[in-house]
Each structure stands twice: as C-alpha cells, then as structure tokens.
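I had to read the description of the data format several times before I understood it. The format is easy to grasp once an entry is in front of the reader. For illustration, here is how one protein appears when written out as sequence plus structure tokens:
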Amino acid sequence: MRTKIETERTHLFDVGIQIAMRIRISGRVTEAELRSSFEYAVEAHGVLGTHIILDESGEAFYEENDGAFYEERKGNQNGFFMEETPWEDILRREERNRFRIEEGEYLRAFCYQLDQEGCEILFLMHHLGGDGKSLVYFIETFMRSLSGEELTFREIRTIPSEEMDRKELRRKLGPAALIPGIYNGKWKKDPSKKVFLFSDLDEAYDSFWETRESKVSEYRISPEMQSKILTRCKAWDVRFTAYLITAFLRRSGRKMDIGLAADARTDHNRCMGNQATGISVQYTYRKKLSFRENVVRVQNLMDEKLEDEDKRMFFLPFIAAFDPTLLDALLLEHAGTFHSKTSGRLAKLMGYVKKKDLSVTNLTKLDIPVSYGKYRIEYFSFVPPVIATAKNVIGVSTLGDCTIMTVHRMLNKISE
C-alpha cells in the first residue's frame, strides 16, 4: 500500500528536519524493558512500518514494508540506543546524521541516563514520521507498553491535497493560487530541472552541516509563574501563545515575521503522520501601548487566520499545488548544493532567503497521562526543528505542572 506525500513534501529534502523530545521517567526499569517497549510501540504505528520511495517522475510515497523489505533490511530501522553522552551532544551529533527514510528509519531513541531511580530518554524523529503531536502520541504508546498495557494499532494519517478545480483553488487561496502555476510553468522550461535523488540529499547534508550546528536553550517556567501568566491571559481574553510572542516582540523592538504551527486534526485522532498546518503574522510592538494592549492586537491577528478555515488551511493546498521536484529544489537551494533561476526566485518569494524571525509551536497542555502504572513522566521537553524558513524556533509544552520552553537556532560555526 502506498500513501502519496503531498502537503508534507517540503519535509523531504530539508536538512534540518529533526524533531526532538526528551523525558525523565521515575520508576526502576531495565535496559531490556526499555528496548522491548520501544520495539512494541514502533509496531503499533503504521507510519513506522513504511519507507519512502521516489518514482521516476519525482513523486514521493510512503510505501508499506513487506516481508521482502524486512528481509533485505534485517528488520525495522527505527532504533533504541544506550548512551553515556549528554543529550545536547547527542542532538548535535544526530542532526547531521541523515535519517534513512528510504530504508524505513524515522525514529531514534537514546537512553542517556539509567539508574535505580529511573531514566532519561531523548527521542528524535524525522518530520515525515509525523508532526509534534505524533511524537507525543508515540511516547504515550511507549509508556503504555512499558507499563504492560496491550497496544492497539494506529494507522498512518496525513492530510492529502484536496482535488480542487481551478475555481475552487482560487476561492480558497485568492491571488496566491496563481503562484504555483506560474512557477511550475517556469520550472518545466528550466534547463536545470531534474528529479532529485536521495544521493542529492546526502550531498546536501554533508555540505550544509560542514559549517553549521544548532543550539538549544531550555527554560522551565515554574508552576507559580505559569499560573500568574494564565491568570492574566484569562483576564485579558488572550491565549498563552500570543502572550509569549508579544514578550519576544517587546524585547526585539522591531517588526517581526512570525510563523505559527497549528493542529489540523479535525477528528482528534492519535495517529502518527503529518496533520499540522501553519499561519504567519507580522507585527511591530507599539511602545506607546501597554503590554496588555499589544497582546490583544497580536491575538486578534492570530484569530483572524486561525478562526477562518480557508486561511488556517491555506498553506497545505498551496504547497501541494507545486511541482514536487521544484519544492525539492527550494530545499537544496537552502542547503547550498543546487541553484537555478526558477528555484532561486521562488526561494526568495517563499521565505527561504529572508527567513521568519520566529517560528512558534505550542503543544499546549499535552493530552497524555503523567502516570503509567508504576512509572511517571517527571519532565517533558519539546525541541522543534530549525526548518529552512526560520531563524529561531520556539517550542512549548506542558505536562502536569512541568512547562518547558525551548529556543532552537542555527549557528554558523565559522562566524558565531
């Protein structure tokens, strides 16, 4: 069985697409129990039993692994590893180690601390394994497996491109609907046009990461501070994300272009796969206004798009309307290993050159349990990837009374 990669195509050739989450588990556990629980959780998710294929035209698909595939690969490639290395060093090492998605590898887990009190684990996932919530739900199944529960199989779930005629696309996207057609036409005539292979992605990784590394800063928001902020948000009729963004805007003192990830699970399923969309807002902090007034303005800008279905879901059909190989070319432009007149111009238009100042993903209060039998998640931290269109990426998550904010940014090792 095959599932076409459409709305998530920009993840395929991105060289900075690793989602990270780390947890601290209290409760005595052995390496063997951790490993078997991980393997059982992998088997419970359909997407982790697939691999990515590219056909001759450049279309990409999730293809279900069959017996011959497993025999050739000697089993599933998603791995659990024991380490004695700090999690920050593991993350920096693994971000330059490309996931072999064509071999069915989407997920790696590293237990970097294990003692009689419990353990700490870093989970790393390729974005084609799913969005942030997908990894949250994998961790939930891992914990349920660890506590001895039976798991139910969860199918792969993505958001396919709608089959829309030209008039319907124009209604949903407005004038922007013309952009994919214009650039597809230019790309078709471009002498540099080609179908890119995984070998091109290998080259991009080698070139990009030779001079770069990412840095993660992690901040714990105390329960007292979180309660204080949420009380203000309730009184001001705003949400925490708008409050947080406004705090960054006040500090910058200039107009900022901000991207926000949004959940697109209309049926609230708990399956792995890309089911997220995104919006963007631009705002300059007004010093003559109070902080509260600025937060309200930011919230209104967000609501204008989040509460309008067409605006909230705009990005997905827009991306799917492009020739998929042109999207690959944009990512390789970003990596510095490919350039053409068409992809170069589109890269500027799409924000691959002048990147967004901030990209924010707030997973809010996680809808998974804290306790699983004799085990408990004492700490949960989420680090989104530094995608090709962002400078600084903010991740926020709350589990129990643990609220963690991370700031993930890319560094040039030569100059920074």
